Amino acid sequence: MNRLKNLRALMLSTAVITGSVMMTGCALAPGAYLDPGNEKHINFNLVDISEKVVDPEPVSRKDLAGDDTAEKDEFYQYLIGAHDVLSVRVWNNPDLTSNQQVASSPFGARSSTIKESNELIRERQQVTPEGVEVQADGSFFFPFAGNIAAAGKTVNQIRVELTKKLAKYVRDPQVSVRVQEFNSQKAQIIGEVKFPRPLPITSQPLRVLDAIALAEGLKDSADKAEAILMTDNHRKTIDMAKLLDGDMSENYLMRDGDVLNIDSNRYRQIVIMGEVNRPIAMPYDQRGMSLNDALVAASGISQMYANAKGVYILRNKTEQGKPTIFRLNMKNATGLLLADRFPLQARDVVYVDTAGVSRWNRVINQLLPTTNAINDFSK
Questions:
Q1: Cβ atoms within 10 Å, residue 253
Q2: What does residue 361 show for φ and ψ, rounded to 5 degrees?
Q3: Which CATH number applies to 79-181: 3.40.50.1100, 3.30.40.10, 3.30.1950.10, 3.30.300.130?
Q4: Tell me: the pLDDT tens digits for 266-285?
């Protein structure tokens, strides 16, 4: 008798729950869904996507490159510093020659050869085993010339000074000076690159693109919109989108002590979630991205669970103090065409709503364990 009473009570409770869910129109269904039209207190702007909202033409890739106004390489000169190693050669006077080896140019290799960044850096330094080292006080000693102040000078200035001093002992001296090892100056590249590292400053100009190449390129998580170059205690913002489009005015020259920071793109992503086949967070490309691009990246809308009438773009950028929610009906071809002309912005959230029948099916799936328990109890 007690078992029968418990069974009736359990069946009555289940019937009440099922009826309540049916009366509330699946409001208790598990999972998230969005219906901004039914909000009692609207604290955002709800905009239906139509011809008035989208661009007149499909969103396409923009060329962001501008004028090339970067400092020209022909004006660049390397200034010698402490612990650099110099190669001094006095022609026809082997006793006064510090080193007779001549290192090859870092860019003299065959163009078809692709080298690792470690090898490129070694070639930039042009390291060979002998030479004259500039001391910590910025000078070096050379026979018959005495101490030569080298720090802060170019190799040509040192060559002229050596020529004058050696002329007292050597008839018409022919002197050549080159830097054998570059040890005094370096820059740094850090952040979302494959190999963060210090980079030597050499007689070859080191620019932002050179630094990225020597760090073996950017990671997928790198911010391709902006980078920061710390130089002389100042922050210089590099427009990476323009640089990657070929705008060499953003390809700044890097000097001793500079730090190039490639930040993460976590603050410039577009999030695609809801009833899509692959919810993702993808980097925003300021050269142009459409709503269709985002949905394709998420492998499209779920044909089984999605409500194609409820595709939303949530944008926190406020207008009159309120965020904006854009709503698009993609049930027909017109919606697909509008999506191709709707431009996305960084930090947009694309959300695809769940169909009502899908929410109801989820309710049923939640109630099935209870139904099975009743069946087992009644046996």
A1: 18
A2: -60, -35
A3: 3.30.1950.10
A4: 888 899 998 899 999 888 88
